[in-house]
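Intended use. Records such as the CSON007913 protein entry shown here are meant for training and evaluating sequence-to-structure methods. They are not intended to support clinical decisions.
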Amino acid sequence: MGCKTSKNTKKYNRLSSRLSIQSRTSNYFEDRYIAPPKSIVHIALFDYEAKFENDISFKKGDLMEISSTLHGDWLMAYHLSNKKRGVVPSIYVAELGSLESNDYFFNNVSRAEAEMLVMADKNPPGTFILRHSGTVSNAFSLTVKRMDDNIRPANYRIRTDCHGFYMITQYEKFRTIHELIIACQANRVKQIRLVRPCPKPVPKMYYLLPQLRDNHETNYMRSNLQNQILQFNEMFDEKASNRASYLIM
């Protein structure tokens, strides 16, 4: 005859099994815990002088850690050199190592605008701009001031092959856009010579910080209302004077 299992033994086995399941479940979620994203380092594309109470000044090339975004136009930043915290305009910085962080890349620039920029009198032959292609999606184009023509710039489309390599001609292929640009600057790509990136125009500040924008709109509405009241009073006085002159006559 087999030994009978006591009630206490059965309770112990059920408890042990339940604790084992809880332990495995806990380990499952602990192994798959995703840490919050770390701050991303950005590089300054232009000089910026603080204009408000909460923003910070920086020079081109300064590095800052970006922790959050405020209304899309401003970023919360920590300056890695002077240790200051504050907000910075998003169009003045770019993520370090990204395509936008390079001086030669112009985002949201059309072919006509790129040609006008490189053909400026102050730019020497070989001045160039890398931009998104206006006709082919997910493609790039180079706009270059020719070495032998001061009237019409050259435009080269940068294509990718089936392996993801970038190329202008089928004979030279590169793993990254940056490698292609470096090769063109070193005269290693036939018939293409790049001397220097076109200087970027400094963005204009058409927007305000959120709290200043609210104050600006409030002041604008107040002044607009005051102007309407003044116009109404002037119109009322004019009608009153006309009525008085009519009664006198």
